[in-house]
Structures
1.
Amino acid sequence: MVTLNAREGPEAEVRRDGVERLAAATRALADAVAVTAVDRATLDEVTGALELLTQRLELETDDDGYSGLLVLPVDPERPETYMPLNPIIGGCSPVRPDVEVRITDGEVIGTATFTRRFVGPAGHAHGGISAMLADQLVAAAPMAIGERTVTKSLTIRYLRALPLDEEVELWGVCTSDGEQFKAKFEVRARGEIAVAGTAVLVPYKNLARRAGIVREGKESGRSGVTKAE
């Protein structure tokens, strides 16, 4: 069983903001690691310092499914507020790329920029990163029509490689299809479609029931202890 316990209040907000700052600094460090050309002695010195910092962070941990970082209220126009550790959009994620998505007019739109730590073919993002981005777009699209889902199947067409260090445009939309949902997405680079595809999604409550994900406390106005919906 996995427990999600949304937190509230100034103390929870302060802690989340602190983790967001730490995560941003960690991502900046990862970008620096991917391009650094310093000598071996400097590398060893920095590595030693990082090992000590890692030990300090491991002194206390949180068993909550989102490490206690899901803080109410959430913003229905900002999917990342529901998923603080999401590896594509989560503000508290130490690994995510620079991706911003918003819900507007029944669609999900946004931008993304990939640095060299996401490199596949030289100068371009790895195809697996494009796939993760695609999955995130189709998963966020149902939120624009008030639904929470998970991806059942995903079809991707790679038309052009995504360039590094250039902003790309994101778009996704979702429609209901009986008990399932259908979504489609596009990623545009330099004004042209680079990655596109479709997905079939199912209600999130199906996964929660099978995986034993339990929500405690309140979220989006609901209270008590319930199965995630």
2.
Amino acid sequence: MEEIIKLKEVIEAALLTSSKPLSIDELQKLYEEKIDRSTIRMIIDELVIDWKDKTLDLVEVASGYRFEAKVKFTEHLMRMNPDRAPKYSRAVLEVLAIIAYRQPVTRGDIESIRGVALNPNAIRQLSEREWIDIIGVKETPGRPSLYGTTKHFLNDFGLKDLSELPDIQKFEEQLNLDLSDTQVLVNSVVKKSEDQKNTDQESYEE
């Protein structure tokens, strides 16, 4: 029991201080002796319960596990840096939704779904955020690029895989009615991503 408590404290400290999600393989490297993956998963399950009524949640995303502030604190935390999260237009959010739900898609596919020409800036903004990338080419005349979301997108939105995306009909209804909630979510995700990048840079400079 005492040994498990020590293992748990090490994993908890690593997750709390890491600027990126940590996988089971990475958590195993914390110890000189070999720790079974099942033991680490058991410890993570215990930590999830331990933090259930605290300010942070331990969540699993595409790249591993990380602590993040509970959603109810998002609005307050964003006030610390209100100008840092760029605002995305309705068009950019629509393009992101189309790529996320319909991938792989070409520029032509996106234009066909939206019914208007695609502004290159939309693809550029999403690519710079590392939420989308070219994942192949379509075997048609001209071999247009195929776009899909990235692991970075999954991490930022707190998803383990694409199956965890909200129901597409509900998401499309939200886009048609009101983008305010979506913008708040995107802003909080961008801020979290920027904070992690700044932490990485500070660590490098030190």
3.
Amino acid sequence: MQVDRSRLEAFSDGVFAVAITLLALNLIVARPGRDDTLLHQLGTHWPVFVAYLISFFMIGIVWVNHHALVRGIAVVDRTLLFLNLVLLLFVVMIPWATATVANYLAAYLAPHGSYADRDTQIAMMLYGAVFLGMSLGFGAMFEWTLHGEHMYRRLPIDKRWAARARFVGGAVVYVIAIVIAQFYAVASFVIIALVAVYYVFERTPGAYQAPAGDAPADAGGPDGPDAS
């Protein structure tokens, strides 16, 4: 079974858009008239805003790399569709994981915090696990592109292991962050934030861009003008 590439992109873009929008639902402050001032609330809820920024850029980075990868795909088959669904499964879990870790971190770090260390550690482990799943899902899609005649331009064999390391290297860091979260949640939080910063500058291999004349303007097949 083959599917028009534009449908894969459109569906995925819709999921990315919903997930990145849901992140903002956790950015709330109490209504006027409460004992806490607005400035105090913003100060004590800083983990919520930091978690929002990390997750926002993570979803955005995956969307950018997903777009770059998919534009080079010549044939969309059933296997790719399910691998893409695995990736999106974890993408839509990011808002929930973000809200969970942000709320527990904020409560834990607040003066006289009432939440136990273990609860915060578990929340951080969940946060890292969602990013790990997303990384593995994207890595599986990338691995699919390395085999068969799936791409307009196949990545040279001598560059594949380096590309694999770049694509799934974050998964190794997420595993480390999950382990560290069992002992110190804040350190794990910082590690995940650094991964986001790294992937802002990391790029999809340039060899994956479709050559001129191999892709249509709507990115739906191999018979139109340049897609790059």
4.
Amino acid sequence: MPDFYTSREESLTRRSISDLRSSVREKIAIAKLARELSHELNNPLEALVNLIYLARQKPLDDETRALLDEAESQIGRMSVVVHSILALEKSNHEQRLRTAGTLLDPPAFQRIKEEYESALHLASIVEGAQDAIYSKKLDGTIMAWNAGAERLFGYPAKEALGKSVMMLVPPDLSQEERGIWEKVKGGTVVEHFDTLRRTKDGKDVRVSVSISPIRNPRGRVVGASTIAREVRGDTSGVTKW
């Protein structure tokens, strides 16, 4: 069987793809949390601004006025950070980096910039791969679905995401799939094996499949990443796993 990847950029291992997905998923969750926290911070910030305004309406000595000036300056800085976080979701790649450059010190910005661009690059490789690459949660729910999966199985991403991966498994192979899934849940990497998968139009296609566990930062298996490639030829002689 030919290698899955032949060019330098296509030499990503299953583990690197799995690690990328896990890392991106974690960072997306963190970004969502940051956005929600920013919304929560916005109201007290506005309240503090109003309190400072009210305080300035009373007679103040020079020391108190200087303290209020400093407090207002710090609130202004916090407000910029909060609104910058809220704006990231609607920004493009260049705008996000520009925002980060204004808020972070140079060493931190350089580190974030390299990690961000590396993640985008790897994600583009996964999306552009000819092979079907998709991931699922422990309950079998499909969480990621690249263009190769769309081509092979016929389901657009919007129809596959959130559905059970069992929609791809012919009924007579459901036990085989469950056996493999138990192995992956235990942390085993399942190497290339030939099996059948069902497409959107009901046809069974012979594929070579590799499945790797996806782990969270604590090392716990939280899902699996699958790479599938169609194997041309007769589907009657599928090698059972």
